[in-house]
Amino acid sequence: DKGNHRHFMEKEIYEQPEIISHALGHYIDFANHTVKSTDKAIDFSKLSGLAISACGTAYLAGLVGKYWFERYARLPVEIDVASEFRYRELPLSPTQAALFISQSGETADTLASLRYCKDEGLKIGAIVNVRESTIARESDAIFPILAGPEIGVASTKAFTCQLAVLASLSIAAGRARGTVSEAEEKAMVKHLAEMPRIMSKVLNEIQPVIETLSRDLSRFKDVLYLGRGTSFPLAMEGALKLKEISYIHAEGYAAGELKHGPIALIDEHMPVIVIAPHDRFFEKTVSNMQEVAARGGKIIFITDEKGAAASKLETMATITLPNVDEIIAPMIFSLPIQLLAYHTAVFMGTDVDQPRNLAKSVTVE
Ligand code: M6R
Question: Where is the active site (predicted)?
Fold first, then answer.
């Protein structure tokens, strides 16, 4: 049932605050501001490293997770798309654990990667939406994302719930390994607890500017997304979402890679969407933005209040989000990215929930 919404995708975008709040309840103790100890089958305190594998949007959630596990838990992360991971003959050790992220829990390549790691003797964790799925069944630990059924082929709420689970797990791992203090845990958990309310506010506020912008975006044939740090996987997720449902060609790049190639493409026909909260990477990303502007590129700037105030560059549009803590920024910044793809596709009249050539669950290699 779509409720008042035109598409399942729209409904799933708008239900994120409520769903994430529910999902977080499984991983954090709101009263004491601590992470709950979840599935004990994986003991993060003793691990030498983590292997993560997944496909599509789930892989991009894993890439954000890599930054978190490395930063907060000081755990080295090896991550790859499952179709490569399964054939890489990656040397692994039973002192590592492996995490597989899958909304459906049935993706063939992800399952094959899981079995590879199992044969190598690693403990297996599944971050899944469908708890009765094959991937969940074959895992030692199950970390449910609790997103409820996702009908739209383009993943939205599963992505932000995967991020919420990965954030919680990386804090839990940090606590277990002594790399996150009690005070740091409390502070980060407080930010996570505030996130649903901020998400609702953002969804309400950005709608008009995104709708206007989508009309302009639908005239272009190519779009480039740039980001640094955890905004880099978001840039790729933005591009994936746009290409899946609007069929506009889009690429997501690490902002620092701009001058190593894609800058050759910059002209007034290819807008550049820059995802840059005012974090420790901001100045560097702005200097990449300057390089785009200097070549006549059109910029769509997705930033926060501090970032909007700090940049003097002329943009085609600026989407200004509230200032939020780093740990929740990827979830908050996912919202404009999802809505932009959604409205652009609606404007172009494509089949948003069932885009051509795509299947919700890819159970063959
Ligand atoms: O069910 P899974 O999470 O394993 O699916 C993985 C990908 O097929 C999926 O995320 C795909 O990329 C989506 N269509 C993205 O919107």
Answer: 360
For 95, the token pair is 């002192």
Assess: ipTM above 0.90.
Answer: yes
Tell me the best of 8, 12, 55, 162 to mutate to test the pocket of ligand 1, counting ligand atoms within 8 Å of each CB and taking the most: 55
Cβ(342)–Cβ(13) below 8 Å: yes
Which of 7, 12, 57, 104 has the most ligand 1 atoms within 8 A of CB, as the residue to mutate? 57
What residues contact residue 285 under an 8 Å CB cut-off, 6+ apart?
A: 226, 227, 228, 231, 255, 274, 276
Determine the Cα–Cα distance for residues 237 and 241; give it in Å rounded to an integer.
Answer: 6
Q: Is 284 considered catalytic here?
A: no
For the Cβ of 338 lying below 6 angstroms from any atom of ligand 1, the answer is no
Q: What is the mean pLDDT of each run of 10 residues along the chain (365 residues)?
A: 94 98 96 89 95 98 98 98 95 97 97 97 98 97 97 97 98 96 98 98 96 96 97 98 97 96 94 97 95 94 97 94 98 98 97 92 90
The closest-lying atom of ligand 1 relative to the alpha carbon of residue 54 is 4
